[in-house]
């Protein structure tokens, strides 16, 4: 029987740290993870490329980064917060298109062939970043672009600030899809993961799978091992990566996938 539900489970931050890289590959080999997006300016980029070459079944995308890490254009540090990024853009200090193009080119030069694009901290919700991402998607033929608007789900209590932010993001939905359509970009039918980032374990993931709508969905995840490299980095997602990893490896999640007749997919599998 043909499934009506396809699910791409994507791990962000591939290349951030060796601990994160190891956890992502483990979730793919032993668990239900199907894809990952690679940070071209990540501290562990070369390690991630090595692992990706050894694991060709892992669907690779580019995690375009304008916040955190080092610029591939200038060699200087990128803004460390969204507010800093907005200030840098307003002052003309951030060349968005050129920076993102350099990141895609670095991934291609490694020999990998990415199938999808997303952005660190969802910066492509900002019109100038979205314009650049859509243009690069068209120019490089990397057609799949993340649509970061959660479908409604009650898998876990959502803090009020997260709920309000999610509603505010929804206001941008119309222009977002119009720009992508104009450049021939593709998106999944649905998206999940923003409201539960850093806050889900096995039970919450099972509840989300039980609520999954028909069509194609991308689930954003952040698994990883929390070792000394990650602990020393500036990121709020540390111990939570271990909890996500265990959820993605759990028998309960596999049972929920089977019970709900959900087909795991890579972006390359989607029509």
What does this structure look like?
The chain has 271 residues and is α/β, with parallel strands linked by helices. The protein has a single domain (5-269), classed as Glycoside hydrolase/deacetylase (TIM Barrel, Alpha-Beta Barrel), CATH 3.20.20. The chain contains eleven helices and eight strands. The protein has helices at residues 18-30, 45-54, 82-90, 96-109, 127-140, 160-171, 173-182, 202-210, 228-231, 239-249, 251-259; strands at residues 5-14, 35-38, 59-64, 116-119, 144-145, 190-192, 215-221, 262-264. Strands 1, 2, 3, 4, 5, 6, 7 and 8 form an eight-stranded parallel sheet that branches. Helix 8 (202-210) links the parallel strand 6 and strand 7. Helix 1 packs parallel to helix 2 (45-54) and helix 1 (18-30) packs parallel to helix 10 (239-249). The chain is globular, with a radius of gyration of 17 Å. The chain starts with a strand and ends in a 7-residue tail after the last strand. The relative contact order is 0.19.
End-to-end gap: 18 Å
Strand content: 5-15%
* Helix-residue proportion: 40-55%
CATH class: Alpha Beta
Net shape: globular
Kindly name the structural category: alpha/beta
> What are the segments in which pLDDT stays under 50 over at least 5 consecutive residues?
none
């Amino acid at each position: 029987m043909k499934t009506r539900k396809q699910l791409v489970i994507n791990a962000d931050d591939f290349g951030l740290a060796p601990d994160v890289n190891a956890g992502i590959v483990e979730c793919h080999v032993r668990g239900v993870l199907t894809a990952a997006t690679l940070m071209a300016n990540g501290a562990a980029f070369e390690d991630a490329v090595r692992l990706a070459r050894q694991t060709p079944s892992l669907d690779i995308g580019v995690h375009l980064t304008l916040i955190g890490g080092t610029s591939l254009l200038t060699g200087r540090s990128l803004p460390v917060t969204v507010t800093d990024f907005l200030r840098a853009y307003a002052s003309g200090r951030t060349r968005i298109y050129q920076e993102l193009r350099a990141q895609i080119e670095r991934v291609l030069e490694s020999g990998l062939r990415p199938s999808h694009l997303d952005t660190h901290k969802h910066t492509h919700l900002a019109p100038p970043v979205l314009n650049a991402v859509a243009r690069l998607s068209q120019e490089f033929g990397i057609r799949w672009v993340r649509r970061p608007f959660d479908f409604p789900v009650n898998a876990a209590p959502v803090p009020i600030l997260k709920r309000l932010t999610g509603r505010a993001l929804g206001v941008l939905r119309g222009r977002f899809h119009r720009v992508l359509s104009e450049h021939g970009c593709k998106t999944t039918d649905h998206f999940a993961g923003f409201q539960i980032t850093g806050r889900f374990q096995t039970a919450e993931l099972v509840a989300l799978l039980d609520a999954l709508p028909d069509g194609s969905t991308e689930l954003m995840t952040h698994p990883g091992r929390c070792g000394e490299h990650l602990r020393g980095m500036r990121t709020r997602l540390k111990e939570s990566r271990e909890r996500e990893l265990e959820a993605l490896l759990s028998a309960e999640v596999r049972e929920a996938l089977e019970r709900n007749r959900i087909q795991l997919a890579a972006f390359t599998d989607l029509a």
